[in-house]
Amino acid sequence: MEKTGGLEKRMKYEFWKDWRKLSNLELKGIDTLKDAKKLLLRNFPKNEIYSIYVKGSFIYRELNDKSDIDLLVILKHSKYLPMVKKLEKKYKKSFKLPIHLGAISVYELRKGKYSKFNKKPNSTTTRLAKQISSFKLAYGKEMKGEKLPNRSDMEDLKSLINAYQKNVIPLYEKGKLDFGSIIKSTFWLVENEERVKGNNPQHSWVGLTEKIKDKKHIIHQAYNFRKNHPKQRKTKLKYLEKLKDYLTMLEKRLK
């Protein structure tokens, strides 16, 4: 018989328990999450993992056939960070759904900057600190984002614009990123722009598109492409030009 404390802890991490009518993709996502947790706990020293969070489309019930299960692993010591990416590379497609493993250390979050062990971070530490309250805890201790170093939404947006103009778009044009990454980039930009405007949209595709009523806004086309990825190169290039124009507009607006 399971001890009460163990049952309570398991229920705390199984945030999907109150979901109704689970889809086949969601059932696969749940199995993938459980197996990914086992993989992580098996490969790190005991008590090294501070927490494991789930983020992205799974927690908002927006999975599609292109989705992965997006995890953020918070470690106590930065020196173990490279192990996370090694595990992702080796096991990314070994589960029922692909996994994406982001990693950061407690030290990095509390200092507000990355260590030498975090070679290719996908976001700034301060953006993660802001977003962490919207993630779902799947293992370990909760990290209080409000107690971590932070910066303004305006600074975050300027940083994103610079990163997408100098890194994300050029990498896509060189064939080193897929079109799905461009669509995700659009989401982050628009979500950040809304926060700069003083809005607080739900951190999901549905929440963001419902918040922005103008159907000509780039977010609506991005959402359609997320649900139905275009196959024609001409369509993708046309969208890329639209994203570049959007970035230019944001840049001018912020000056």
Task: Write the topology of this structure.
Elements: H1 4-13, H2 24-43, E1 49-55, E2 69-75, H3 81-91, E3 99-105, H4 106-111, H5 125-131, E4 136-140, H6 153-173, H7 179-196, H8 205-211, H9 218-227, H10 233-254
Parallel strand pairs: 2-3
Antiparallel strand pairs: 1-2, 1-4
Helix pairs in contact: 6-7, 6-10, 7-9, 7-10
Report Rg.
19 Å
The span between the termini is 63 Å
Specify the number of helices.
10
Number of strands: 4
Spatial strand order of the main sheet: 3-2-1-4
Largest sheet: 4 strands, mixed
Average pLDDT number: 89
Question: How much of the residues is beta strand, in percent?
Answer: 5-15%
Protein described:
- This protein is of the alpha+beta class.
- 52% of the residues lie in helices and 10% in strands.
- A four-stranded mixed sheet has the order 3-2-1-4.
- α6 runs antiparallel to α7, α6 packs antiparallel against α10 and α7 runs antiparallel to α9 (218-227).
- The longest helix is centred in the last third of the chain and has 22 residues, at 233-254.
- The chain is globular.
